[in-house]
Design goal:
GIY-YIG endonuclease, globular, alpha+beta, 4-stranded antiparallel sheet
């Protein structure tokens, strides 16, 4: 049996009109940049361009990342904002000037 040792991340991006997008990836920087690239971006960003990566949390597997992503997506906006501003997250301030 082979094990996949890649670390998976759950991330939240704030858009220019203050919407929040949650996703998972093994490479946050690459995926963040892809959200600015036509053809590779999530459909979500076609009408609401990304502004800033505001939350990153590492997970041990794709399954764990997917489960956390689903939990976050079910949260009310207020609860997502509390998660983003809490000291428990691995906050990354990457704005579109650094792409």
């Amino acid at each position: 049996m082979t094990t996949n040792s890649k670390t998976w991340y759950v991330y939240i991006i704030k858009t220019i009109d203050e919407k929040l997008y949650t996703g998972i990836t093994t490479d946050v920087e690459r995926r963040y940049k892809e959200h600015f690239t036509k053809g590779k971006q999530a459909k979500f960003f076609r009408s609401s361009p990304p502004e800033m990566l505001v939350f990153v949390c590492s997970q041990g597997s794709r399954s764990q990342a997917s489960k956390l992503e689903a939990k976050i997506k079910k949260l009310k906006r207020q609860d997502k904002m509390m998660l983003i501003t809490s000291s428990d997250n691995q906050l990354v301030q990457t704005n579109n000037e650094s792409k």
